[in-house]
Amino acid sequence: MPANAYHKLEELFAKLLRIEDAIAILQWDAAVMMPKASAPARGEEIATLKGLHHKLLAGPSVASLICKANNLDMDDWQRANLAEMSRQWIHAHAVPARLIEALARATSACEMVWREARARGDFKSVRKSLEKVVALTREAGEAKAEPLGVTPYEALMDLYEPEASEKRIDPLFADLEAFIAQTLPRVLDRQKGAPPPALGPVPEARQKLLGRKLMEVIGFDFSKGRLDESAHPFSGGTPYDVRITTRYDEAEPLKSLMGVAHETGHALYEMNLPEAWRHQPVGRARGMGMHESQSLIVEMQACRSVEFTRFLAPLLRDMLGGSGPEWQADALLRRLTWVSPGFIRVDADELTYSAHVILRYRLERDMIRGALKVSDLPEAWNEGMRRLLNIVPASDAQGCLQDIHWYDGAIGYFPSYTLGALAAAQLFQAAGKAMPDLRGKLEQGDFSPLMTWLKTHVHGQGCKGSSDEILERATGHPLDAGFFKAHIEQRYLNSDNY
Amino acid sequence: MPANAYHKLEELFAKLLRIEDAIAILQWDAAVMMPKASAPARGEEIATLKGLHHKLLAGPSVASLICKANNLDMDDWQRANLAEMSRQWIHAHAVPARLIEALARATSACEMVWREARARGDFKSVRKSLEKVVALTREAGEAKAEPLGVTPYEALMDLYEPEASEKRIDPLFADLEAFIAQTLPRVLDRQKGAPPPALGPVPEARQKLLGRKLMEVIGFDFSKGRLDESAHPFSGGTPYDVRITTRYDEAEPLKSLMGVAHETGHALYEMNLPEAWRHQPVGRARGMGMHESQSLIVEMQACRSVEFTRFLAPLLRDMLGGSGPEWQADALLRRLTWVSPGFIRVDADELTYSAHVILRYRLERDMIRGALKVSDLPEAWNEGMRRLLNIVPASDAQGCLQDIHWYDGAIGYFPSYTLGALAAAQLFQAAGKAMPDLRGKLEQGDFSPLMTWLKTHVHGQGCKGSSDEILERATGHPLDAGFFKAHIEQRYLNSDNY
């Protein structure tokens, strides 16, 4: 049987994924293993593979295969696969090679300047570099907007969270802002005194054993993945070889432990992708929003629940040799759910975290629209922080210089974090409805009901449908912030245990 | 200025090297870091990159660029670069894609069968798989023989040791065989009693610190490389990021230590390749023979010398906390230079090692010629061992099944080991002549004169000329076994210290 257009596409995209997977391992290595002085050569190697990938993907012959394949009979998975191929082709084809190269150079230069600027809290020194990155990124967004049929900023979001729309996110985030404004003072009022003291010092080696134990409890398969250390924890590798990292703070083992829980949530999404399709685009993770929902359902919904802390507290005492009141389940829960508005996003609790994202979403959207000048960014940032959390950073290092994203060209990424937090609450409540004993199982350290449910309803769905379609099939509703708000109210305002 | 043919070739080959370097890191990762279950996916990733590499290299447009470039004015480095490009193109172009794929499948299947067969000492079970590999490898050799202007077996050697010839190696190895036959009984006679006892047990962590210390003494730059563990020690990575491995035997720290010395010799060759040219073929290592000479000059010539053991013995006592007669320099030297004919190549001393290589050279040459049937291999092996070392293995596991090379398709590789041993002796004696204080410096733990000399005369030469040309420029002679024989006689027959 001669290969038809669809089969030819499957062959091509399998090859593209193998190149992407090779790049993922090289990037993991660069963050975890590589000696520093090798960075420039590694940059060249990865750029070369990306160039080969782009050349294979972006050509007009791929488009004509997609057009031909559209007319063929195929099942739902194949149809969804073709849709994902088409989306990837548009992203690759829309941006001319000249612009890709200019962006690569501009972001790489800007990132270097940013590291210095952040260390000195000196926004001015990076302003020009960022202006260039924003201008070029806007150009890329504009180039993709028409073929995708969306706004330039939506075209940028689409790379991370397909089909995310401003019309949808604007009111969603406005509603969340109001909820935070209303809820935060009540939580802070109820949350008297200080958080329990840190559990350290605990040597790294013990924290590592504990982290591995928690990964096993959650369901991580060490025959297909690794745990390592890196300066910035992440989940990397491939669905066949999932690699997460953490960093250890001897003074507080809960930091690395909750980091490991978070990354293990990401990892299980990858490990549970549909076996039959993971060599094709449709068999890969849906997007960054759905990915974040899986890290947060493990970390925030499950591991910081009152039930799981009852399992976790004796495990911590056993493995870390602790004793005293701060090692009891109630103190542990209090520490794991302590709310405290601060300047730094990555240190934020789950209530104020969304405020950090809302701020960044509005600022980056406006920069791409041209409604906010890069030179006005620090002031707009501080004004937004005052409005959202009623605090103002003393330095841009704690303000608009804190995150690498913009300086690295990742504009359009931030909303995924909060879309993921909302989806996590929605999925966890649906799972609890489907399995009334879910929380009881977590109290016994049994993640398998939750993970089996997620594998069926999320992980195993790959890209079969949009995030909203997957969510609706899984929970009966498209994304709805009501579940997140209910979760916050239950955990922080109505619970006796807290 | 428009790019001329030569500049276009430089651009292409820089890209090819970046792909090769990416593959090298993925292979290192597979041996050192990768979870076992990820092996099939990694195999696909590497095969995909190799396929892209081959497609870029093997086409006729590359040949026409080479033809055009041949007529251009260029300096010696560029001319040597073009020669190396040409050689690589012939290797890539001569073998049709069908044969490359058949070889990849046959060797991958044969290697798996071999692992089982070796474990059971059952040659018959792997015979058919090996016949297929030999037949396909012969076909590849025949395809390359004409364009390279050599015999099929020489074409296979050329991949590892360019310009190696049967006419040259046949008498060289016959002479070495006679030398071993004459020398070995005299050494064994002189070497009375038993070797000193092993220095262990020493925990892995201490051996690792000691290994790193020795690497620093030799000149390894840890800002551009790593030391790790793997089942089979090797030197991998790229010239920008050199990664060596070892394995630890708690009972005998000298095993990993000498392994580390050996791989560090390989590593320094890579680290010292010409800075201005290492992004081009001419700036890479000359071949496997020259590479082995660099590992052996460090391990065999320098680290096992009477002078260096005087530096090493107190270091071992300090770092491993040892005391007693076996920790004295004379006992250490005796242990490091103990001669003992055995069945296993990788455990052999430097005198009997060549016998193992001579045997394999003759057998693989005859298999490719069709003068030796695969089914007759075990008998021919045992007959050869009787003739060369007067011992006969009781099982093929200790005979023709011991090495992975043939079963993995690496036919033509073995001679490099002994060519390297001969070159190492020749280079070390030339360096000693140029710097009369060389051995005195080693006694102080100072490798810098040796390494500076090697950087100038070998490492920094890249592929500028053949192995023989590099050797002749460095030592005043083409490859000559006389230096190796003189070294063996001095160390094992004439020295007082031993």
Write the layout of secondary structure elements.
2 copies of one chain form a homodimer.
Chain A: H1 5-32, H2 39-58, H3 60-70, H4 76-94, H5 97-120, H6 124-148, H7 152-160, H8 166-190, H9 204-218, E1 225-229, E2 235-238, E3 241-246, H10 253-271, H11 288-303, H12 306-320, H13 329-336, H14 350-369, H15 377-389, H16 415-434, H17 438-443, H18 448-457, H19 467-475, H20 482-494
Parallel strand pairs in A: 1-3
Antiparallel strand pairs in A: 2-3
Helix pairs in contact in A: 1-2, 1-3, 3-4, 4-6, 5-6, 6-7, 8-14, 8-20, 9-10, 10-11, 11-16, 12-13, 14-15, 14-16, 16-20
Give the strand line-up of the largest sheet of chain A. 1-3-2
How far is the N terminus from the C terminus of chain A? 65 Å
Q: Let me know the largest β-sheet of chain A.
A: 3 strands, mixed
Looking at the structure, the CATH topology of the largest domain in chain A is: Neurolysin, domain 3
Q: Please count the helical segments of chain A.
A: 20
Q: What kind of assembly state do the chains in view correspond to? A: homodimer
Query: Could you say how many structural domains of chain A there are in total?
Result: 2
- Compute the CA-based radius of gyration of chain A: 23 Å
What proportion strand of chain A? Answer: under 5%
Q: Determine the mean pLDDT of chain A.
A: 96
Biggest interface and residues each: A-B, 32 and 32 residues
Series of secondary-structure elements of chain A, N-terminal to C-terminal: HHHHHHHHHEEEHHHHHHHHHHH
Low-confidence stretches of chain A: none
CATH top level label of the largest domain in chain A:
Mainly Alpha
What characteristic shape of chain A results from the CA principal axes?
A: globular
